[in-house]
Structures are given as structure tokens and as C-alpha cells.
Design goal:
The chain is an alpha+beta fold and 512 residues long. The chain has three domains: 231 residues, Rhopdopsin 7-helix transmembrane proteins (Up-down Bundle), CATH 1.20.1070; 104 residues, 2-Layer Sandwich (Beta-Lactamase); 158 residues, Alpha-Beta Plaits, CATH 3.30.70.270. The chain has 14 helices and 14 strands. The protein has a five-stranded antiparallel β-sheet with strand order 4-3-7-6-5. Strands 9-10-8-13-14 form a five-stranded mixed β-sheet. Strands 1-2 form a two-stranded antiparallel ribbon. Helix 11 packs across helix 12. The chain starts with a helix and ends in a 5-residue tail after the last strand. The relative contact order is 0.06.
């Protein structure tokens, strides 16, 4: 190849490498772009060193270009490995591994640029006018060790990619294949160079590496610009942060799994067993509410280790042509909000002390029960219960004892009545009941059973046994009654029970 044509090809490759690095820098939105930028920087540095050697006029200029190529190719192989590991979602831990891998090219840089240490790599260098390079050399004792290191890193990359080929599914294997070819080209180029060099077949020390990097840059260009195989410019990866509290799941347009962060795996552990390209619905424990992924927002709960509540927002990601490319599922923990809402709702209709319906909510539910009973031609009874001498309990033992009595009373009434009878705390020590579909004798017997259970009960407070009775007024609901008048009638019957000696049930009798 004529010298000017060779230089032209290298310049074009250098420009392409710089373009890819700049494109990733300004358009990339994932962590993978960082290693790709470093890769392109080293490729550009290597090609610059090669151009410097090609246009050199003396040994010093040519040797400077050789040193630049050696150091940059050594760093390049490490950054390629970091990129491949990140692409395959393999975390390199601990960090000391990265430091050790970078230490070899760092030591090479020290040897090449410090005093006579370069003689450990190159025992002697000679200026020449060969077409593809302008310097010959005699290898030093560390030449093969330092120059075989890039081959070692690239072999690790290939092993990792081949291993990943058996795990990823569908079109994502194509991504691995293209990346594998990109790495195999310089690997084979360097391998054949060293084989030829050691065997003496490469008499003129022909460099394969610059040409393999030209091919690699071209394949990377096609992969990124046409297939977007490295997802360098994917908006879907912009929010895939490792340390956010919200769960993050990235799937493609066919609902196949791409990526998830640790928070998502904590919420839905089954995600960790799904491999790239598998349907996300294969994840064990995937919520039924997320079965179609067509709604913008879905709420679901997880019952393991206590109920927890989550809200999942599904955000589509479109290409420039408005084609669906991916979906982002963000999962936020709303347990505290849901529990707070339940507490607020409960406070609106539940008496906090006894756990019964409060007066307002009892009246609301009683209205519905009365309307239904009237339609079904059922009898309706209202009852009012009041504790006897309750003030004396508070005065003697304190309000804490009184609260304990009220809780016990609520439990006794609740356990005595039928499951569909309505019970509420009307206020103070008064309780109200609504019972339907009972004969007069049955209604009276039910109230009497409540009274007897109260009379037989004992409440222990600070070692003291407290007994208390109750008085009950019962009123039958007539067609001309309203809920308010029915409760008033039961209250009048309660008044009669109080004045008649307490601890008894009185049935309301109309004055007319």
C-alpha cells in the first residue's frame, strides 16, 4: 500500500474514532458511554502515534510514535474489558481489581517515558523507511510480557461475551455477536502479528493492529449509528440509576426484560432470576396488576413480611420516528401514604377507643339498612344501651379504668349480637343498635342476653375487679317512624329503664 494511501486511511479512521467519542459524549445517556469514550480516546491516541511514526524523519520521532502506540493500546484493552463487563451487567468488585488491571499499562507508561527503563521493553530501535512503519526494534526482556497483556484482556472480553451469549435471548444475541466481532478483529490481528514475529515470518515487522482498529471503529460506527446496539443514546437508560430508592425496570417494546436496579429486585425478587430477552412476565411474583402494561399507573401490594403497597408508573420510550422502543417501569413505595389514608378514613367513621362505628357513620349505615329492610318487609328494632353508674367508675378508679370498661362493653355487645346487626358508639357511655328481621320476643331476648352478659362480666384494672351493669331501651320501627324518631323512642325506653331501677331492658310503648 503506498504511504500516502495508508496515511489517508489512518486519518479517516482517526476522524471516525474522534466522532464516535464525541457522539457518545454529547448524546450518550447511560453509564456505558464513559468506557466507550475512553476506548475511542485510546484508539485515537494509538492512531495518532502511528501517523506520527509514518511521517517521521528520524529515529526519535518514530520512537515517540511507537511509545504512544504501546501505552495507548495497553490502556485500550483494559477499557474494552470494562466496557464489555458493564455491557453484560457484570460488576467488577472489589475496586482493587480495576486498579490492578490499570497498573500494568501504568507501569508500561513509566518504563517507556522514564530514563533508561524503556530498554526493558526495547533493547534497540532503528530507523527505517518501510511502507507501513519507520522503525525496527530488538525486543527487551519485558517486551512480550507487556505486549501480551492486551491479548489477555481481549481474551477475557471474548470469554465474557460467549458466556453471555448462552444467557441472553432473541435479538440481544445479535448485539453480543457484533461486539464480539469488534473485539475479535484486533485480537486476531495482534495474535498473528506476535506469531509471525516470534517465528521470524514477519521479516519487516508488519503492523496488523492499526488496520484491525480501523475495522473495529467502522463496526462500532455501524453498531451505534444504525443498530444502537450499545444503547449509548437510549433515553430508556437515562434514569437507570443504581442508588435511587424507586424500583426501576427497563423492558423492550415486546415486554422482554432488559435491566433492573437493586431497588426493583428488593420489591420483586423474582426479577433477579430473569435473563435479558426473557418476558418480564416470567419473573416469579410479578404482580397481576402489571399483567398488560398498557395503563400509565398501577397500584399493587406485596404481602411478604407484612403488607406493602406500591405504585408503578409505565412510561413508553419512542424513537425519533415515534416507534415504541422500550418501556420504563418506575415502582414507588406508597405504604406510608396508604396506611395514613386508611387511618384518616378510619378516623372518619370508627370510634378510636372502642373500634365501633362512630355516631355519624352509624346513622349513615343505619339509613341504608332501614331502606333495605322496608323493601323486604322486615321488622326493624333500635336499641339504646347505657352503662349504670359509669361516672362512679371514673371517679373511683380514674378515666383509664373507664376506658377499659367501654372497650370491654363494646366487645361484649359485638360478641352477643348477630354478625349483620349494626352497632355503634353513640357518645359517652351510650351504645346504639339496629337489628332487622326479628320477632318481638327475639328482639327482646337479644337485648336481655346483652344485659345478662354485661352483668356477668368482670373487668380487672390494676388488680381490682370491677363489675358494672347496663340499662337498655328497645323500640320497634313503625312505618311512620324515621331513623331519628326510632332512636328517640329507644332513648325514652332507656330513660324508663334507668328510672325503674337500672340493669333491665324496657320496650318502648307509644303514649297513644
Amino acid at each position: 500500500m503506498p504511504a500516502y494511501l495508508l496515511i489517508t486511511v489512518i486519518w479517516i479512521s482517526l476522524a471516525l474514532s474522534i466522532f464516535l467519542g464525541a457522539y457518545a459524549l454529547f448524546r450518550g445517556q447511560s453509564t456505558k458511554k464513559n468506557y466507550l469514550i475512553l476506548m475511542q480516546a485510546m484508539i485515537s491516541t494509538f492512531l495518532f502515534g502511528y501517523i506520527l511514526e509514518l511521517i517521521s524523519n528520524n529515529k526519535e520521532e518514530a520512537y515517540l510514535g511507537l511509545k504512544i502506540m504501546d501505552v495507548s493500546s495497553s490502556f485500550l484493552s483494559v477499557f474494552v474489558f470494562f466496557f464489555v463487563a458493564d455491557f453484560c451487567n457484570v460488576k467488577i468488585r472489589p475496586v482493587i481489581i480495576k486498579i490492578l488491571m490499570l497498573s500494568v499499562p501504568s507501569l508500561l507508561a513509566v518504563f517507556m517515558w522514564t530514563g533508561d527503563l524503556h530498554l526493558l521493553i526495547y533493547r534497540g530501535c532503528y530507523f527505517t523507511l518501510e511502507l507501513n512503519h519507520h522503525i525496527d526494534f530488538s525486543p527487551g526482556p519485558l517486551y512480550f510480557l507487556t505486549n501480551l497483556y492486551p491479548l489477555f484482556c481481549l481474551v477475557l472480553c471474548l470469554a465474557l461475551l460467549i458466556h453471555q451469549m448462552f444467557k441472553w435471548k432473541n435479538k440481544y444475541r445479535k448485539q453480543l455477536l457484533i461486539l464480539l466481532i469488534c473485539i475479535a478483529v484486533p485480537l486476531l490481528g495482534d495474535f498473528f502479528y506476535y506469531i509471525a514475529f516470534v517465528s521470524g515470518m514477519n521479516k519487516y515487522q508488519f503492523y496488523f493492529t492499526p488496520f484491525s482498529l480501523v475495522i473495529m471503529s467502522f463496526l462500532l460506527y455501524l453498531g451505534i449509528m444504525r443498530f444502537n446496539i450499545f444503547e449509548i443514546i437510549s433515553m430508556a437508560t437515562s434514569t437507570a440509576m443504581e442508588h435511587i430508592k424507586e424500583g426501576f425496570v427497563l423492558i423492550d417494546e415486546h415486554n422482554n426484560y432488559l435491566y433492573s436496579n437493586p431497588a426493583a429486585i428488593v420489591i420483586i425478587p423474582g426479577i433477579s432470576k430473569v435473563t435479558r430477552g426473557d418476558s418480564i412476565f416470567l419473573a416469579e411474583g410479578w404482580p397481576d396488576e402489571l399483567g398488560d402494561l398498557k395503563r400509565e399507573s398501577v397500584e399493587f401490594s406485596v404481602k411478604e413480611n407484612g403488607p406493602k403497597y406500591f405504585r408503578a408508573s409505565i412510561n413508553p420510550v419512542f424513537s425519533k420516528g415515534q416507534n415504541l422502543k422500550a418501556k420504563i417501569i418506575l415502582i414507588a413505595d406508597i405504604t406510608d401514604s396508604v396506611n395514613l389514608m386508611k387511618e384518616l378514613e378510619s378516623a372518619a367513621y370508627i370510634d378510636s377507643l372502642t373500634g365501633l362505628y362512630n355516631r355519624k357513620h352509624f346513622l349513615k349505615l343505619a339509613t341504608v339498612d332501614i331502606e333495605r329492610a322496608i323493601r323486604m318487609n322486615q321488622t326493624i328494632y333500635t336499641g339504646m344501651l347505657d352503662l349504670d353508674f359509669f361516672k362512679k367508675v371514673n371517679d373511683t378508679y380514674g378515666h383509664a379504668a373507664g376506658d377499659l370498661i367501654l372497650k370491654a362493653t363494646a366487645g361484649i355487645i359485638h360478641n352477643t349480637i348477630r354478625s349483620y346487626d349494626l352497632l355503634g358508639r353513640f357518645g359517652g357511655e351510650e351504645f346504639v343498635l339496629l337489628c332487622t328481621d326479628l320477632e318481638p320476643s327475639e328482639a327482646f331476648t337479644l337485648m336481655e342476653r346483652i344485659r345478662e352478659n354485661m352483668e356477668d362480666s368482670i373487668t380487672v384494672y390494676e388488680g381490682v375487679e370491677i363489675k358494672i351493669t347496663c340499662s337498655i331501651g328497645l323500640a320497634k320501627f313503625d312505618r311512620n317512624d324515621s331513623l331519628e324518631s326510632a332512636i328517640k323512642n329507644a332513648d325514652e325506653a332507656l330513660y324508663v329503664a334507668k328510672n325503674s331501677g337500672r340493669n333491665q331492658v324496657q320496650l318502648y310503648r307509644s303514649p297513644t
